[in-house]
Design brief:
With 329 residues, the chain is α/β, with parallel strands linked by helices. Helix content is 46%, strand content 19%. The termini are far apart.
């Protein structure tokens, strides 16, 4: 079966021939790669599912899936169509949430993905800005890994993501707006022997147990380079984790040190859960940013939320400037 697009039908043919069931079929095929499994999921017979797939391919004018002994596999056209089908269904689900919010007397709804770095500081400040402005909408926040949240953003399940700017290769289909930068700081539990010291030598810190990011995390590479620069071995690791709440809890219950973004450390320090040590690292993390799908029309509710995020970020950046950064060495 060839995969040439020279005989593709015009766009009006796609719009007139395809129904919502076709898009559900595409998404299910992308997940299961099996007509048998898709027919069970969509509660239809296998012949009916095969007919739907033929209708989809006729509408687009090109084969989208390669038939194999194991099932069906999307070709390069199929991968593109499946991805767009996911986005369309995600946007429809978001539209349903928005209409439900409006029906309940609100101004709209925004679905936000939040990295741990933005959850305790940026998001609450943005919500406070919205409250002060009298905005009557609803924000639904979902916290998770970059892979999970950016995947949900691409599928249309999220309207934006607040977090660390991704690696350059992850941005081809996304737009982003840097908001602020923050230092890397070292923290300990309030009862740690180093917690109230005004001066600490890095060799003393390296002799302690540490809670470290996982080996694949960018911050772990920053730490490895820093200790190598100081001529010190990497410290003994008590726990490998990128979960900030888990790390803060663990550092309170141990004699370990932990590395945190400056804003997050300040938040937990104000709560009395950690103490920031007079140790600094002369390296920068990627900026905290708001990440969106490229070229997509934004709702009024999303625009209101983005304006609040920018205002909150200005306050966060100002707080960074007022906070004395510990000396690097």
């Amino acid at each position: 079966m060839t995969t040439t697009a020279t005989g593709a039908w015009p766009s009006w043919n796609v719009r007139s021939r395809l129904r919502m069931r076709h898009f559900e079929m595409l998404v299910a095929l992308g997940e299961h790669a099996s007509i048998h499994k898709v027919s069970r999921e969509l509660n239809m017979s296998q012949p009916a599912a095969s007919k739907l797939l033929r209708e989809i391919e006729r509408a687009f004018g090109v084969p989208l899936f390669e038939r194999t002994r194991r099932g069906v596999a999307p070709n390069r056209y199929g991968e593109a169509v499946v991805e767009r089908a996911r986005v369309m269904l995600g946007i429809l689900d978001g539209t349903r949430d928005t209409l439900a919010a409006i029906a309940g007397g609100l101004e709209g709804a925004v679905n936000v993905g939040v990295y741990a770095v933005a959850a305790p500081v940026l998001l609450p400040r943005a919500l406070e800005v919205l409250r002060q402005r009298g905005w009557r909408g609803r924000v639904r926040a979902e916290e998770g890994s970059a892979e999970l949240l950016l995947g949900s953003l691409r599928r249309g399940a999220l309207d934006c993501v607040l977090g660390r700017l991704p690696e350059e290769g992850e941005l081809a289909d996304l737009s982003f707006e840097p908001l602020y930068e923050e230092p890397i700081v070292i923290a300990a539990g309030p009862d740690h022997p180093l917690a109230r010291r005004r001066r600490i030598d890095w060799a003393e810190a390296a002799a302690c147990e540490w809670i470290l990011p996982s080996p694949a995390a960018p911050l772990r590479r920053v730490l490895q380079a820093w200790f190598a620069r100081l001529g010190l071995a990497m410290p003994r690791c008590l726990l490998e984790s990128v979960s900030i709440p888990a790390n803060v809890t663990a550092v309170r219950e141990s004699q370990a040190l932990v590395v945190l973004p400056g804003g997050v450390a300040g938040h937990y320090s104000r709560l009395g859960l950690v103490r920031v040590l007079p140790l600094g690292i002369d390296s920068a993390l990627p900026p905290v940013a708001v990440i969106l799908r490229k070229g997509e029309q934004r709702t009024a509710a999303l625009e209101a939320f983005l304006e609040a995020v920018r205002k909150a970020a200005q306050g966060t950046a100002a707080a960074r400037g007022r906070t004395r950064r510990p000396p690097a060495i």
